[in-house]
Amino acid sequence: MSHWVMEEEESPDVICELENVQGLVDALTAVRWKRQQDALLELSEHGIVLIVEESGCLQAKVYLKRELFIRYDYKARGRPRFGVSLGHFVDCLNAFSVPGQISVIQIQYPGSDMQVLLKSVDSLDASICAEIRTRIPDTIAWDYNFEPAGTNPLTFTVKSAALKEAIEDLEWPGSSIQIILQPDPPSVTLRAEGHGDLQIDFMYYVNSELLVAFQCDHRVSFKYKYKFLKATTSNMPASVIKENRGSKLSIGRGGMLKVQHLVSIAKPCVSHQYVDSVGYQQPGRIAHIEFFVKPEESED
Amino acid sequence: MKFKALVTENGVTLLEKRFLPALEKTGKACHLCLTRDHAMFLHNLLNGDGIQSIAQFRKDALFHDYRISSNNDDRIAFSLDLSLLLRALRSAVAVAASASSSAVPNRLEIKLVKKLPPNSTQSMPFLTLETRGYKSAVIQDIPISKPFSRAHLAELQTALDSAQDLPQTLLQVPDLNQLLNLVDRMKQVGDVVNVFISKHGDLSVQVSTTLISLGAEFRRLVVIGEQTNAPAEDQNLGAHARSTRSISRGDGQSVQVSVKHFAKSLQCHLARPDCAFYGIAPQGSCLTVIFQFFIPGSRQTDKSISLHCRLPVLDSGSG
């Protein structure tokens, strides 16, 4: 019996430990735009990437770099990939997040039956554990190859809270949103036409507190489906807004829109809050989230 | 049939701040059973499928000037809506607070009355709360069911007697709040929770579906009743292996109950018990939770208050 147990405990592909479970829950919730969602996880020596996709038009990636973890033992050959239900994964992780308490969680893959194993490692006498079945990913997630549109990037950075609010306001008029970038005067316009018209302008020189960076050398305009655009901000973690972060939006070749958010996964630590307030933090403690949205039709 | 009493200040606090909010979570509809010495709030004793909860107070824990008489051995029982009682009690407290400047102490009287409701020709039974201040009185009538017949009372008494059998082993659960937090998450995962309890102080709760399993394990808990020492060779095994071995040895048992019922039993922490114990009733008939209350400022059990719940078992499990 003991022999058999020993054999089973062959070293897994990855064992990692994380201190701030809530941060991880926040980051994953940001890409959870509906109840039933399949996610693909890819493990590597650099960390874990979680990918979700919808209708060939919207993709989101959460990058969890190995620096986020207090332990990251990676033993796999190649890059293991597996599918899980994002909802189940988040629900399970949530169980480990105890309000007002720092809890260390251990994540292991694979278990004896190719499951993901989650376990709290704070105390020997009380522990929480979870197992999530994985799937073999049926297709390789469609690659949203983001390439720059020209020699100069088309990009702007806007306060995440302002972006979220603008997109929420655009719900009323209609189903597609036009994003226009123009260099003179440097501005970003979000425009919806439908039951009515609504246009939101971010002027670089007027709203420099909202539009914190802007790069554009020629006018571009693309339309995106509202529901996809909304998915990029609808579950933005409260910490992103509280820490007054910015989101970076770029338009690539063919109008592919990239939206990037930063989510802090640092250990909740009171003495360091002044560091957060000026928007600086150890880069290792940030999870990057990227959304790729395909345009409806190109106008240029 | 008569019932009349004054609710003490302590009684008001116990009911308004602690017990009624907790019991309301178990279910709004409840039976109130009054005897010569006790007042009991009973949930689901007569219908089999819900979580049973039995909260019993000695009369002087809640009342003074307690007067009761009936043809059924001075026992009266009826059903009422707890949320109405709680609302009435809250407003009585508010009235008392606003009148507290007056020199006359406030009196909160509770009694059974029969009244003719407006637009009706038949009188109906009510539980009435009367707050009397210096100049005014506020009367609140809570509609109740017709008081139980002798046969109905006997049925309730039988159910109550059979709900008193204690599990052989009880484990003290350390942190109800933390467990409640976990069980709230479990509700997202599945409907049935597997509860394992061993005589050496292991408690585990687990929800499993085909895709996912989520659980918690507590070890070395305080054991009351029958106990054994954990075999040394089990110490380093995983939770699942340990519980399987324990069940096969016969010093552990597991049952399946509804996650919702389990969460409701944890909601009883609103009554602010000092300890909570979980155990499996003989023959795995139900999962029993016993809450213990101390005399304030001491570690002695307050025998005038008792609260316990019985969770129906969905399947007797592997035990």
Automatic annotation (TrEMBL), chain A:
GO terms under biological process: DNA damage checkpoint signaling; DNA repair
GO cellular component: checkpoint clamp complex
Subcellular compartments: Nucleus
Alphabetical UniProt keywords: DNA damage, DNA repair, Nucleus
Chief site of localization: nucleus
InterPro entries reported in the protein's UniProt record: DNA_clamp_sf, Rad1_Rec1_Rad17
Family in the record: Belongs to the rad1 family.
PANTHER family named among the record's database cross-references: CELL CYCLE CHECKPOINT PROTEIN RAD1
Name by which UniProt lists this protein: Uncharacterized protein
Source organism per UniProt: Psophocarpus tetragonolobus (Winged bean)
Taxonomic lineage: Eukaryota, Viridiplantae, Streptophyta, Embryophyta, Tracheophyta
From TrEMBL, chain B:
Subcellular location: Nucleus
Source superkingdom: Eukaryota
Alphabetized Gene3D superfamilies for the sequence: 3.70.10.10
Keywords: Nucleus
Listed GO biological process terms: double-strand break repair via homologous recombination; meiotic DNA integrity checkpoint signaling; mitotic DNA replication checkpoint signaling; mitotic intra-S DNA damage checkpoint signaling; nucleotide-excision repair; telomere maintenance
Classification via InterPro entries: HUS1 (IPR016580), HUS1/Mec3 (IPR007150)
Short name of one Pfam family: Hus1
GO cellular component: checkpoint clamp complex; nucleolus; site of double-strand break
Entry similarity comment: Belongs to the HUS1 family.
Annotated protein name in UniProt: Checkpoint protein
Upper lineage: Eukaryota, Viridiplantae, Streptophyta, Embryophyta, Tracheophyta
